[in-house]
């Protein structure tokens, strides 16, 4: 199987590295179209001859074309791509906000898969949600899901409109976690710890909590009850969260992120 990756920024490099490291695709079968040719130490073992700054007929040799460019650059790049892509190829997009129908229309293709990955893909712990055009068959979807899963885990949804909520939850989600962690670190500093101590306290707490959730198979409510004894310190903290409607604030924030994802798509 051969693939051309259009765009070699963070997401393009992440997917290229994951495909090659997992041995799903050979380095020599990966071609890169980028604004600039990277330094040899950034080529991930891909032959230097496989890098180019121009879209050409060579793209026709690939079974899959991965669009890893910024959505605002799509229309400019599409003018060149549409001359060479074909209806037999799978167009795999990780562009935020660019719909399947828009990709089909601009490029004159049929098999389009649209995915929303998150930052965790960079360490092999990503969460991706993907959808596909009706012309994409089960074999195509199986191949794409295997590719995506080299970067973490994935969920397939028939309804493409769920990509926007996925963007709001898992796409933006790491930033919410980092925001909460930062607030806890600052609180720990206010209570007397230095930054290094506070950061370790919080990071290890989050790491342990995630592993506990995975290991125990309990609901979050049950896990909270395991920590929050009656009349104890945790119960006091949780009461503050409830009094300030923290759950509703988080819900409102994700709803707002979803609305913005819809706006960007239009």
Automatic annotation (TrEMBL):
<dbReference type="InterPro" id="IPR028939">
    <property type="entry name" value="P5C_Rdtase_cat_N"/>
</dbReference>
<dbReference type="Pfam" id="PF03807">
    <property type="entry name" value="F420_oxidored"/>
</dbReference>
<protein>
    <recommendedName>
        <fullName>Pyrroline-5-carboxylate reductase</fullName>
        <ecNumber>1.5.1.2</ecNumber>
    </recommendedName>
</protein>
<dbReference type="GO" id="GO:0004735">
    <property type="term" value="F:pyrroline-5-carboxylate reductase activity"/>
</dbReference>
<keyword id="KW-0028">Amino-acid biosynthesis</keyword>
<dbReference type="InterPro" id="IPR008927">
    <property type="entry name" value="6-PGluconate_DH-like_C_sf"/>
</dbReference>
<keyword id="KW-0641">Proline biosynthesis</keyword>
<dbReference type="InterPro" id="IPR029036">
    <property type="entry name" value="P5CR_dimer"/>
</dbReference>
<dbReference type="GO" id="GO:0055129">
    <property type="term" value="P:L-proline biosynthetic process"/>
</dbReference>
<dbReference type="InterPro" id="IPR000304">
    <property type="entry name" value="Pyrroline-COOH_reductase"/>
</dbReference>
<dbReference type="GO" id="GO:0005737">
    <property type="term" value="C:cytoplasm"/>
</dbReference>
<feature type="binding site">
    <location>
        <begin position="68"/>
        <end position="71"/>
    </location>
    <ligand>
        <name>NADP(+)</name>
    </ligand>
</feature>
<comment type="function">
    <text>Catalyzes the reduction of 1-pyrroline-5-carboxylate (PCA) to L-proline.</text>
</comment>
<comment type="pathway">
    <text>Amino-acid biosynthesis; L-proline biosynthesis; L-proline from L-glutamate 5-semialdehyde: step 1/1.</text>
</comment>
<feature type="domain" description="Pyrroline-5-carboxylate reductase catalytic N-terminal">
    <location>
        <begin position="2"/>
        <end position="97"/>
    </location>
</feature>
<keyword id="KW-0521">NADP</keyword>
<keyword id="KW-0963">Cytoplasm</keyword>
<keyword id="KW-0560">Oxidoreductase</keyword>
<dbReference type="Pfam" id="PF14748">
    <property type="entry name" value="P5CR_dimer"/>
</dbReference>
<feature type="domain" description="Pyrroline-5-carboxylate reductase dimerisation">
    <location>
        <begin position="160"/>
        <end position="264"/>
    </location>
</feature>
<comment type="similarity">
    <text>Belongs to the pyrroline-5-carboxylate reductase family.</text>
</comment>
<feature type="binding site">
    <location>
        <position position="34"/>
    </location>
    <ligand>
        <name>NADP(+)</name>
    </ligand>
</feature>
<dbReference type="InterPro" id="IPR036291">
    <property type="entry name" value="NAD(P)-bd_dom_sf"/>
</dbReference>
């Amino acid at each position: 199987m051969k693939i051309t990756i259009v765009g070699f920024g963070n997401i393009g490099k992440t997917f290229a590295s994951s495909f090659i490291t997992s041995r799903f695709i050979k380095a020599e079968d990966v071609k890169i179209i980028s604004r600039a040719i990277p330094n040899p130490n950034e080529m991930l073992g891909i032959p230097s001859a496989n890098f180019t700054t121009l879209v050409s007929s060579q793209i026709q040799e690939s079974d899959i074309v991965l669009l890893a460019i910024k959505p605002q650059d799509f229309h400019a790049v599409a003018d060149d791509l549409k001359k060479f892509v074909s209806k037999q190829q799978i167009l795999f997009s990780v562009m935020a906000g660019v719909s399947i129908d828009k990709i089909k229309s601009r490029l004159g293709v049929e098999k389009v898969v649209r995915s929303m990955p998150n930052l965790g893909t960079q360490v092999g712990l990503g969460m991706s949600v993907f959808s596909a055009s009706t012309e994409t068959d089960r074999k195509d979807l199986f191949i794409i899901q295997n590719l995506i899963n080299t970067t973490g885990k994935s969920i397939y949804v028939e309804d493409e409109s769920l990509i926007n909520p996925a963007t709001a939850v898992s796409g933006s989600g790491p930033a919410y976690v980092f925001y909460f962690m930062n607030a806890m670190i600052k609180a720990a500093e206010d209570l007397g710890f230095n930054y290094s101590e506070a950061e370790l306290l919080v990071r290890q707490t989050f790491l342990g909590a995630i592993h506990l959730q995975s290991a125990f198979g309990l609901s979050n409510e049950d896990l909270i009850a395991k920590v929050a004894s009656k009349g104890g310190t945790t119960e006091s903290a949780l009461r503050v969260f409830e009094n300030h409607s923290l759950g509703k604030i988080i819900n409102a924030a994700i709803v707002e992120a979803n609305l913005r994802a819809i706006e960007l798509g239009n």
